[in-house]
Amino acid sequence: MLSRRLMIVVAAASLALAGCQKHGPSSAPAKGDMSLGNPNAKVTVVEYASVGCPVCAKWQAEVYPAFKAKYIDTGKIHYVFREMLVGGQEEVALAANGFILARCAGPDKYFPVIDAIFADQQQAFQQPREVLSNVAKSVGMTDDQFNKCINDENAIKALNDRVEQHAKVDGINATPTFVINGKAMEPGYHSLTEMDAAIAAASK
Questions:
Q1: How far is CA 120 from the centre of its chain?
Q2: Edge-to-edge strand list for the sheet holding 43-49
Q3: Are 114 and 81 in contact (CB under 8 A)?
Q4: For 4-15+23-203, CATH number?
Q5: What is this structure's pTM?
Q6: Quick one: residue 11, left, alpha or beta (phi over 0 = left, psi -120 to 50 = alpha)?
Q7: Residues 7-18: pLDDT tens digits?
Q8: Which pick of 153, 169, 176, 178 has the fewest CB atoms within 10 Å?
């Protein structure tokens, strides 16, 4: 089992996602954002997602590679990934530990960690510590660094603060939710064709 304290803290946070002070989702830069692509691009695509979300993992496997090649790698968009904690205790615990691990790995290794967790999500539900430990080792972390990372109270608080911001202020309550130049698509899985249409509309 991973950090019991972490599981309790993030579970409590996930139950408090609904709230007031909603301003709507934003494509404007926010503290803690992790991003890829061209920050000066005309179009910004924000994905609110959870590495413990099966639909997010499906999109990551089936759509993201082509989406990345077409839009991110070419500099046509600025892609922003924002962390959410949704679902049951199992999904929330995996996501929380995964996000904290990705942050510990550092900005240059954040997305490789996220990609690896998505790829091994089903196995991670069965053996969370083993899978996350292996991911940590793959980006150069020792067992001691991994243990300190997922039990870091400051990191736990920072994650909860980000999630609360995304939920209460941006009004996000489901994953994945894509926001293109400030306009939110219907939450859920979207094909590359659907993403193409939304990005084309935002480019006009």
A1: 15
A2: 34-37, 77-83, 43-49, 177-180, 183-184
A3: yes
A4: 3.40.30.10
A5: 0.87
A6: alpha
A7: 434 444 444 443
A8: 153
